[in-house]
Design goal:
The complex is a heterodimer of chains A (264) and B (280).
Chain A (H helix, E strand, L loop, with lengths): L5 E10 L2 E11 L4 E5 L6 H8 L7 E6 L2 E2 L7 H6 L1 E4 L11 H13 L3 H14 L15 H13 L5 E5 L10 H13 L3 E5 L3 H7 L2 E6 L2 E6 L1 H6 L4 H11 L20
Parallel strand pairs in A: 3-8, 3-9, 6-7, 7-8
Antiparallel strand pairs in A: 1-2, 1-4, 4-5, 9-10
Helix pairs in contact in A: 3-4, 3-5, 4-5, 5-6
Chain B lengths: L3 H5 L11 H26 L2 H8 L2 H7 L2 H32 L4 H16 L2 H15 L8 H28 L2 H9 L4 H31 L15 H12 L3 H31 L2
Classes of the chains: A alpha/beta (264), B mainly alpha (280).
Protein name (chain A): ABC-type polar-amino-acid transporter
Subcellular location (chain A): Cell membrane
Keywords (chain A): Amino-acid transport, ATP-binding, Cell membrane, Membrane, Nucleotide-binding, Transport
Chain lengths: 264, 280
């Protein structure tokens, strides 16, 4: 296999006394789609945010496309241009129209001229199926549409890697499908993707690998059929049973919320 | 001891107690009576002829035009706007210093804000108009009186505007900066292209309020000593009031202020209610 697109080694992250990541090792190859699952507070969002240095790791290394981004001398702005990030809360720029949301970063960060930025913006809006919303403002869009614009905005920068931080968790259930469809298409086109998600169907069907995290460590890492269909660890089984059938969960003491700190 | 029963059950109304509606009616009635009595007393005791003579002499009022508009109001507006621009630029710089990760910048900004918010505007005017020329003979503040006023008003308003702008910047959700940084914006570019434009939408109402305050504070020019051509509303009104020995010019000057401040305040209220609606 060629060099991994994302490589994380011995990653630790603490917020004060709260140790969120306790030594993560993870490799994601080019074109691979990896879904990270786990209970809230397991550190999965923090791990994702460490991959583009929105959180500064306490210890350990992160490589993206062969560049060590944890090197203090690296030009982090240049590296981030190669990493697309999609947030749970979309984070579109509310004072700009949909098209301007896509063109402004291209022009200010990549120095593209107006015409080229507009062309690339139109292409990517078409890619997420929202060409007709080009002149709308984010506040007039549904959550699902906003998230698709956010994906288009990230794609317009021409990233090599896309990170998704619970992209469908803030959406009404009936709007989740459109966003997942866009992500599925992206995966089929060969994009390297790291997706923190609770969408098990998506993970099972689209992911090449599923990583289960709990308590700041990777508990299980393998192909989706194995991790979701036939989990080897008790913690994974427990998490999946609660997720797939929440109505069947029993009242229990001091388990699921024990970490109690969701970073997302 | 016959009352014991009612004391134990306070919810049962005593006989002859007023109902809630009656109480409300009585209270409102009393307020109206007091109001009408006060107005009547004022109307009866005031010397109307003298008041009209002092405050509303048509000939003196007419004599003020057009200068009160073309000269005095124009200068007031000019002083206000130049002070606002200086204050806005300086306030922006101080706000960014206040948010800087470099300690000394933060301290300097805090000291500035504390000092200039704590001093009377009049003292700043005297400082710029008298103390600076005395302390540094030969120095000339660019723009003469206009420069001095812009500087004095700017120094005062910068402190308030810096705090307003800082609050506005901090009111922009954290996710906006994260999104911008994730797209490869440097912190400075993100601030300029993404954060500050949103912050200004948030602080437009308080900034406009600041403009109204400055508009009134521009009257302190009075203490700088100005030429005839440089007079603004207050000075213009006062001068004319002393030459005519009549208060009408003061009233006209006052109305000129209100001509600007009331519409501005209305605009602020409109913007505030609009931004209330726009909160997502």
């Amino acid at each position: 296999m060629s060099r991994p697109e994302i490589q994380v080694s011995d990653l630790h992250k603490s917020f004060g006394d709260n140790q969120v990541l306790k030594g993560i090792d993870l490799e994601i190859g080019q074109g691979e789609v990896v879904c990270v699952i786990g209970p809230s507070g397991s550190g999965k969002s923090t791990l994702l945010r460490c991959v583009n240095l929105l959180e500064e790791p306490t210890k350990g290394q992160v490589f993206v496309g062969g560049t060590e981004i944890t090197d203090p001398d690296v030009d982090i702005d240049a590296v981030r241009r190669r990493i697309g990030m999609v947030f749970q809360q979309f984070n579109l720029f509310p004072h700009l129209s949909v098209t301007e949301n896509l063109t402004l970063p291209q022009r200010r960060v990549l120095g593209r001229d107006k015409a080229e930025a507009a062309r690339i913006a139109a292409e990517n809006l078409a890619r997420v199926g929202l060409s007709e919303k080009a002149d709308a403002y984010p506040s007039s869009l549904s959550g699902g549409q906003q998230q698709r614009v956010a994906i288009a905005r990230a794609l317009a920068m021409g990233p090599e890697v896309m990170l998704f931080d619970e992209p469908t968790s803030a959406l009404d259930p009936e709007l989740v499908g459109d966003v997942l469809a866009v992500m599925r298409r992206l995966a089929q086109e060969g994009m390297t993707m790291m997706v923190v998600t609770h969408e098990m169907t998506f993970a099972r069907e689209v992911a090449d690998r599923v990583v289960f995290m709990d308590g700041g460590v990777i508990v299980e890492d393998g192909n989706p059929a194995q991790v979701i269909g036939d989990p080897q660890h008790e913690r994974t089984r427990h998490f999946l049973s609660r997720l797939l059938d929440p109505a069947m969960a029993e009242v229990e003491e001091g388990t699921s919320d024990r970490v109690g700190k969701d970073r997302s | 001891m016959t009352d014991t029963g009612t004391q134990l059950q306070p919810s049962r109304p005593k006989k002859k107690r007023l109902t809630r509606r009656q109480k409300r009616r009585l209270s409102r009635g009393v307020q109206y009576v007091v109001f009408v009595a006060a107005v009547a007393a004022f109307a009866a005791t005031a010397d109307w002829g003298r008041l009209r003579n002092q405050f509303a002499q048509g000939s003196i009022a007419r004599q003020m035009f057009p200068d009160v508009i073309t000269l005095a109001l124009k200068n007031t507006v000019l002083y206000t706007l130049s002070g606002f621009v200086v204050g806005l630029v300086l306030g922006m710089v101080i706000a960014l210093m206040r948010l800087s990760s470099v300690g000394p910048y933060r301290w300097l900004a805090t000291v500035y804000i504390e000092i200039f918010r704590g001093l009377p505007a009049l003292l700043i005017f005297i400082f710029v108009g008298v103390a600076v020329p005395l302390a540094f003979p030969g120095t000339e503040i660019v723009g003469g009186t206009y420069g001095k006023v812009a500087l004095a008003l700017g120094l005062v308003s910068a402190a308030y505007m810096a705090e307003t702008i800082r609050a506005g910047i901090q009111a922009v959700p954290k996710g906006q900066m994260e999104a911008a940084r994730s797209l490869g914006f440097s912190p400075a570019k993100a601030m300029v292209s993404i954060i500050v434009p949103q912050a200004f939408r948030i602080i437009l109402p308080p900034l406009t309020n600041e403009l109204v305050l400055l508009f009134k504070d521009s009257s302190l020019v009075l203490f700088l000593g100005v030429t005839l051509e440089e007079r603004e509303l207050s000075k213009f009104g006062r001068d004319l009031a002393s030459t005519t020995a009549n208060s009408t010019p003061i009233l006209v000057a006052g109305l000129c202020y209100l001509l600007v401040t009331i519409p501005l305040s209305y605009v602020v209220r409109r913007m505030e209610s609009k931004s209330q609606e726009a909160i997502r």
